[in-house]
Amino acid sequence: MFKKVLxxxxxxxxxxxxxxxxxxxxxxxxxxSDVDADSMHVRLADESVCIGSHQPQNSYLNISAIMxxxxxxxxxxxxxxxxxxxxxxxxxRKVIKEGLVWVGPSPYVISVMGDKLKAKxxxxxxxxxxxKMTTRPKEAKHIGYPLLIKAAxxxxxxxxxxxxxxxxxxxxxxSAQREAKSGFGDERVFIERYVEKSRHIEIxxxxxxxxxxxHLGERECSIQRRHQKIIEESPSPRVSEEIRxxxxxxxxMLAKKIKYQSAGTVEFLMDDKTGxxxxxxxxxxxxxxxxxxxxxxxxxxxxxxxxxxxxxxxGYEQGDIEFNGSAIEAxxxxxxxxxxxxxEIGTLIAFEGDYDADxxxxxxxxxxxxxxxxxxxxxxxxxxxxxxxIDAARxxxxxxxxxxxxxxxxxxxxxxxxxxxxEYLDGNTTTDFID
Length: 435
Fold this sequence. Notes:
The chain is an alpha+beta fold. About 30% of the residues lie in helices and about 25% in strands. Helix 5 packs antiparallel against helix 6 (about 105-115) and helix 13 runs antiparallel to helix 14. It is globular and about 55 Å long. The termini are far apart. The relative contact order is 0.12.
């Protein structure tokens, strides 16, 4: 049992974890860089420690500073949130070596699943469908064009290139390698088949230290710009009961193969025409879009992470999980959709939701917050829930339209336009929808 958790993160995910801990009587410690000194997560935590005054992004990657904050406060567990150190196996090992509780999967699982090549090998051994791939450019022609070049490490669309013809392959590989090296310190890339009309479907899993593993259904995350998701939902309008069963079983097979513990996500690519699906990767952490799963299952994923980290059993089986209604999440960013979605900066002179609009706001900013260039420009995740998908979409549109936001440009109108579009309401949105 632990009584105090340090959240090694910032912004809305730090706020989310702090609120879950408070609800269950667990003390919280926030860490922050100087630019975050007056942030919401710092205000809400029981204690806070400054971990850096220069290069704010690097502050949250400073393992020594974070461990010093543990020593100062007597925290007994660390929750890494997502991003930053959440999928850093070395950090997880150090936390455990120091006798602390790591709220997440084992360092081994983080390490293996963080390497997409190793993850694919394990998926094959677990009999999970995978796309044809190679690391040898000479073998690319046997896969067939178009092709997708992907970085072996990291994510977020870095080190990723679509190749339509053989003459572009060599330069595309070099370009992807440079970006992968810069972003992840690892220039390895691989080549796989590119599925043009596809959907990005992911399965939420939970596993405890007693060998119990369940899945909590799927999330559709196909609406993306620059390979970054902006609208997610559960359930998917395209996934049938048959596909859901097959995909859920595949996710559990892989999770059992690696003895997965904590919350995680098994991601798949699905052919929109045939319903055939293939393994993409495993995210060994909480996902940004986890609230839609919480809304349709009634299961608090952060609390489940804390329970599993305490060594508790899940206490339920796959057949006990119920899926009700529909939930949709929109990511509200300080960015200009009319300028290639480039980030915007400024001070939020207004940031208030309309309490009459029935929606959940997960945010790390308030009126007066400064939106700078140091961190991701996401302002909030706005989540709606309703018995039907159409009603959930209408509620989300209403919540976005009614919010009072000023001081920076946002993608609000773009999100509303997407949600109102005939394609979205009909469920006809594949990964190329925004393009």
